[in-house]
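Q: Convert this sequence to structure tokens.
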Amino acid sequence: MIEPASNRRQALELHIEGVVQGVGFRPFVHRLAMRHHLAGWVRNESGAVRIEIEGPPDSLSAFVNELATEAPPLTRIDSLDVSTARPGLSDGFEIISSADMPDGRLPISPDVATCLSCERELLDEMDRRFGYPFITCTDCGPRYTVIEAMPYDRERTSMRSFAQCAACLHEYETPADRRYHSETNSCDACGPSIELVAMSAPADRGAGGRLVSADSGEVLAATAAALCAGRIAAIRGLGGFHLTVDATDEAAVRRLRRRKSREAKPLAVMVSDIDEAARIAIVSREEERLLRSAERPVVLLRAKPGNGLAPSVAPGLDTIGVMTPYTPLHHVLLRRVNRPLVMTSGNVSDEPIAIGNAEARQRLGSIADLLVTHDREIVSRYDDSVVRVVGSRPLFLRRARGYAPLPIPLPIAAPRPLLAVGPHLKNTFALVHDRSAYVSQHIGDLENLETLSHFRDTLSRYRLLFRVQPEVAVRDLHPGYLSTRVAEELDLERVIAVQHHHAHIAAVAAEHGITDPVVGLAFDGTGYGDDGKVWGAETLVAHLTDYRRVGRLRYAPLPGGDLAVRHPWRVALGYLSLAPELAPAFRLAFDGVSHRELAVAERQISHRLNAPLASSMGRLFDAAAAVLGTRRDSHYEGQAAMELEALAGERDGEPLPFPVQEGRNGCREMDPLPLLAALGERAARGENRSELAARFHESVAAASSRLAIRVCDENGLSTVALGGGVFQNARLLTSIRRRLETRGLRVLVPSQLSPNDGAISYGQAAVAAAVLRAELNL
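A:
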């Protein structure tokens, strides 16, 4: 008798790549196999998950389909290869030990927020994990910050120090349980614990601190009371410490700013839930989605008037950086204080975030009144990600927790392993194998040894985790950057230099999979140009291997060089030097500036002494703020531009004169002097500065769009890429995009990376991959 086809047993072997380790994928596979009564096994391999499975054909077909449609929320399947195998597996299905393959590579899940199931248990007084600050399951919790090596198993994480108790081990070994093979599984009886340390008096804080309590309930109660009393706490989280203070207490916020040496830069705020976010700011549907997402970035929201926050949280701005709790400790603490809390990186400004307990006592002891520490070691530093919504689409301002280290594909595979070391400011690096670019989390400004050490430590971890040994280094064109020195000191077979603004445009094009030429608007503060001058307002015709500069802003001297970045009046003076007859229109820029300072800056310009010529859109924003009399000195990078955007708000504004002129060597020139003069004259007459700020934005948008449209027409192109830190300005980005799309052009905007220098390393990698393949005629 012939057995019916529906009853015949077949066997399949499945090879799955993507984010499939550390996300509950193997337990999900086990449950799915049990549902369909299939036999076999699943295991982690260094570069994938492998499944061997056997059963009736219909059941196997359903199993394969549901692998993709019902996978855990943190899973990302990049490829699923299915091949037939020889039947003969025993009954039952099991998870077997991981197999290490020396050349295997696997994306690693970022740390993600506490899931709703764990949150319910955390707040349930009848649950055994009630109030436990480290509750996790396969769907949530730390990943990247605890993983020491791959494949992802508990013994290769910082959780290996905590042996599971009988109850936790039962969950870990029970296929139907949500914590089946959850590598961070623990409870109050067997897992990490927290301690409260009171720092010494301000006069001798360097001496250390005094242990107050190690009971989690007491620690959180005492911390909440201290915060409500205006004290400053340093709280150890997933990727480092936060400095925390009551966001409604002006005196406390000012005290934090003074101790942290962060005079004016906006501070992020954590609220307990969406309802509280909506009380202090306007929350759109997309912004709500981000605040509820597993990634839980800081989301830039438009502030509501009279929201109760201390004015010093975000002085001079109409936006607030808001996030919701993403660790169990955050959830419990926010409910105890019942008010918004400032949550800012645990560091002195310009230094990396502190991660170790001893490190925090040393580096944060002069800032915090108390430390909340824990004994689960942090393997990797990890700042919060920052996002704003422009139109209805998220735009990264900083990519870190929740997103890195997921790889970003390249449109052209690199024929050799690469390391793109990135820029000097807002540094990231990109480690590349084939089409996968592993872009690091935000490293910071490479201006001190501490940040350089952070760069090198993170690079070592990436090389270990992703098993990439680079053969080629890629760097910025600037010979003096610290990242350039790092690239040269690696002693690799080859070093490729990529111009800064070419990298900006390449990054935008590459993440959209574009390899054809585009017109690029690269607007930022500073980049080293081919002519040795400062670039930052560039119109390029670019593809991945090369570019032509076809437009720029008129050059103007920057008296004092980098000092002009901190003093916008200096930028205005540089422009005024091109047309001294406009002095009456520039009068407001120099109110309060001493005659001596002005004289020194004027001599620098006249003698060309430390007064480099610059074509920079970021500096034009500085000059406009000075000419309007709104900001003559800046306390942080971009302050003048951010305040100018806030001043403009959503007001309508007709463009002012901003001519585009024919230039030398086919490079057109935007001349901002008529625009600056018009702004200054109207401000001096008492015209509304908010309206003038709006008109300034529309003037830049109109001139830039006209130039881009003309270049597209002349070159037969229909795609424009927008890159550079100036495009963090939502008003400018929206206006330019609208003007270009109205003319039928396709506009590319960053979506997986920031428009700012955090994307430079990825752009460098895309250029180098294309150059290397072109050299091989591939």
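Residues 689-715 form the longest helix (27 residues).
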